[in-house]
Amino acid sequence: MGSVQFQVLNLTNKIRRLTSHLELHRKDYFSQRSLLKILGKRQRLIDYLSKKSVENEVV
């Protein structure tokens, strides 16, 4: 999979692609659901990164 930073970057690119796709295909509900899942996954990874960086500062 790669580092967490790379995963966040990769998910961000997927979000951009899906967003532009949904501008053309507004009723593509499967893609809307996929976008929400990817947004949630990216947010969890960002939360993990911020928590990890705080732990590194304390140590």
Automatic annotation (TrEMBL):
Q: Do you know which Gene3D superfamilies this protein is assigned to? A: S15/NS1, RNA-binding
Q: Does the keyword Membrane apply?
A: no
Example of a GO MF term: structural constituent of ribosome
Give TM regions: none
Pfam families given for it? Ribosomal_S15 (PF00312)
| CDD domains, alphabetized | Ribosomal_S15p_S13e
User: InterPro entries this protein is in?
Assistant: Ribosomal_uS15 (IPR000589), Ribosomal_uS15_bac-type (IPR005290), uS15_NS1_RNA-bd_sf (IPR009068)
* Xref: PROSITE patterns: RIBOSOMAL_S15
Alphabetic keyword roster: Chloroplast, Plastid, Ribonucleoprotein, Ribosomal protein
Biological process (GO), any one? translation
Does this UniProt record's set of keywords contain Plastid?
A: yes
State the GO CC annotations: cytoplasm; ribonucleoprotein complex; ribosome
Q: Of which family is this protein a member? A: Belongs to the universal ribosomal protein uS15 family.
Q: What is this protein called?
A: Small ribosomal subunit protein uS15c
The gene is rps15
